[in-house]
């Protein structure tokens, strides 16, 4: 596999132009003067409430009733006020509030009180935001999530409703549907644009609509699925989290087609059948999803709920050439590695500078990890989590493969795309009898330091041995001559649950439990244990440690290291 991609200045200026044009169009289509465009016939009823796969908790409904809104990792107490009037500067919290996905907890409560509270909150939103199409509550991505949630939980919201509310709710469903239909084509590329098409398909099935409307929604959905879901089931953003989030909407949509006696688009059937094995590809045995390119905290129950629909059986795929990842799996050991350039600039706002990084798990323990991101934490940590040094791979001269920190003026306009990074990544899979292995290289450091990083990983002996060879050489394969400007750091971030000991010979032992320990060795270099941060902890960032190999490319153009499973812990930590 040979993948080439780069983000030139022309691409960034193109991104600026597209974002500016899209913002202008949305501004022109917002406000009271444009409200008339989205008015029209009010549907008579909701035909069907689609299912929701997201985990629901009745206790959350009780907390919301008492004015406690724990959304996007932040707890806000309204103290008797409407949550829509409480001044909260946290944008993820605001987005979660206006997306209304928390309605599922009201349905789980199965009480008249929860239903009345859900109805009151929807009524408050319609009174405050229903007359003016503008601002964050009407961002197309937020609108798509809200539209899906209102349809999925319409039975709870409408339970015991009087006719005026019933009619107003249906009217607002139609207004949001027309607004989304108008803006979907010009939304920024990526997950939200696909979700807008999913929301519109839900509307065509759940509300009274002519057959032509169902066909149009299905056709547009199919086109977006074919464009965004790769042949191996990955998403064009290269973010494993996108697969999980989109499946949580696509599986209920497929079921809704069936429930309405409509034939799902073949593209929907095919996409789901590709995405389910892709999600398993990124899954460690403890249920966690590998942390690459924007993946952070894994909600294990959510993943399990999705994978109940995967009836393919057998072992996960080992090779994802279109997404750009490799998986080595023998015995109880799993290794997952990033072997491709970053995604296109439009889709790289969550991408990481982690090319050739890997994660390794053994049984129910993760040993070597990437730092991941804190999905619900302070955004100020995200740039650090995206750096090459936050990944289990090599950094040269303490420099990241790519950058993503722009001035606030630029970030406000185009977000935080990944700039630079590897333009060409070559990967060759070479499995043998009892051995899973690959060799990959990237040129992310060539423009600055004139050096290539090549990594070969080999898993053998029924998963008991993982061997790595890291080469830092010039593009023609010759050793580095840049003495003094070729500092190498090979990092192995260790999961916080793993202890690091030294045996009597001074070698490092990684211990998950007495029956699952690994010996780390390296040729010619003394490993150093340093502090690190694991951002993707369920309770927020956690202190962890990393093993680092410091050398220079001119001194050690080839670095050989090994992890071997052992069953004894000797010495003191």
TrEMBL record:
Limits of the Heparinase II/III-like C-terminal domain: 314-561
Subcellular location: Cell envelope
Entries under InterPro entries matching the protein: Chondroitin_lyas, Hepar_II_III_C
A Pfam family per the record: Hepar_II_III_C
Chief location bin: other
Protein name: Heparinase II/III family protein
Originating species: Nitratireductor rhodophyticola
